[in-house]
Amino acid sequence: MSSSPWDLNKEEIADLLSSEPRYRIDQLWHGLHHEGQPPETISSLPIKLRSKLAEHFQPALTEVQRQTSADGNTIKWLWELPDGARIETVLMLYAERATVCISSQAGCAMACDFCATGQAGFTRHLTTGEILEQVVQARAAAQPRRLSNVVYMGMGEPMANYGPLISSLHRIIDDFEIGARRITVSTVGLVPQMNRFAEEGLQVGLAVSLHSANDAERTEMVPINKRHPISALIEASQNFRAKTGRRVSFEWAMIDGVNDKDSDIAELAKVAKAASAHVNLIPLNPTPGYPTVGTPPERIAAFAKALGDHGVNVTVRANRGTDIDAACGQLSAANER
Ligand code: SAH
């Protein structure tokens, strides 16, 4: 099976082109990253070299379906990979810029019960090229807007696919020229990787999917909490802040009667302050395998206000693309609509 041309790092490209003039390395690199072209259409390269490269390297993403929300501002792709695995990518358009939400794995092994990706289970890790191609495609579709932000909040647990996570981040920052501060990686809370991530010397944002500030309840929602409990998350969040100067943000999907009680406010305020974290409340999006409904908007507003009164820095996320199952937690690559 051919691999993605974006899987190659610059050294591998240099090896591959060792019998060619040196400047071909930069031409291929530039064509892939700046023009977002696969080798066969990079016009600065001789035709013979293009077809030789195309024999070995083919883009990994084949579009199966592309949906646009009713307001036209959110686009969701369903892609098929060379081995038949499927992933989704979401592009959110704003007046003059755009944000892409990318997948890091096909499926997810974390099994959070309220998340459609978790309900569907794990297929496999994505390669660096498969992660980067999502950005290439989104950048082209966002035109004439600038693709300004990238969030690793699609399918999968990015910290469980650590090598490709880090190599894709470096390439997005260095070669796609998107500032590290405009990139956010979201994790279910894999503590060893969070600590490793803090040492990478990157100014990338880190979000942690908390959802409950009480270990017994969090373990019900997010099973990995059994291995990495809240006290460990607080410590890892403080470590991240010490090493990078940046606060983590806690994500909290608001679920009616589950994590929107008065006791949750007090518990969350305590944990957020201990972790010096910002809190981002997410209205729950419906998923096929989870019967409980989202917290009503008035309660979300009251919850946010109460947290603010406790001295917590809090925002409520505006959900995008719920009508095409493109919002947080809805990506399953099921394609059964
Ligand atoms: N595995 C990573 C990346 C996924 S990001 C992580 O867990 O952080 C997707 C975000 O949406 C996570 O914060 C996730 O907890 C949240 N989410 C999952 N299901 C949701 C739902 N049904 N409604 C709203 N948010 C949801």
Instruction: Quote the distance from N terminus to C terminus.
Output: 30 Å
Runs in which pLDDT lies below 50 for 5 or more consecutive residues are none
Radius of gyration over C-alpha positions, nearest whole angstrom: 21 Å
The level of helicity is 25-40%
Count of runs of 4 or more consecutive helical residues = 11
CATH homologous superfamily heading of the largest domain: Aldolase class I
Assign the CATH class of the largest domain: Alpha Beta
Mean pLDDT: 96
Bound molecules: S-adenosyl-L-homocysteine
Say what the CATH topology of the largest domain is: TIM Barrel
The count of strands amounts to: 12
Protein traits:
337 residues, TIM Barrel, 10-stranded mixed β-sheet, two-stranded antiparallel ribbon, 35% helix
Characterize the structure shown.
Helix 7 links the parallel strand 8 and strand 9. The chain has two domains: 48 residues, no CATH class; 263 residues, Aldolase class I (TIM Barrel, Alpha-Beta Barrel). The strands form two sheets. The protein has a ten-stranded mixed β-sheet, covered by helices on one side. Strands 5-6 form a two-stranded antiparallel sheet. It is globular and about 70 Å long. The protein starts with 9 loop residues before the first helix and ends in a 21-residue tail after the last strand. It has eleven helices and twelve strands. With 337 residues, it is an alpha/beta fold. The model has no long low-confidence stretch (mean pLDDT 96). S-adenosyl-L-homocysteine binds next to strand 8 and strand 10.
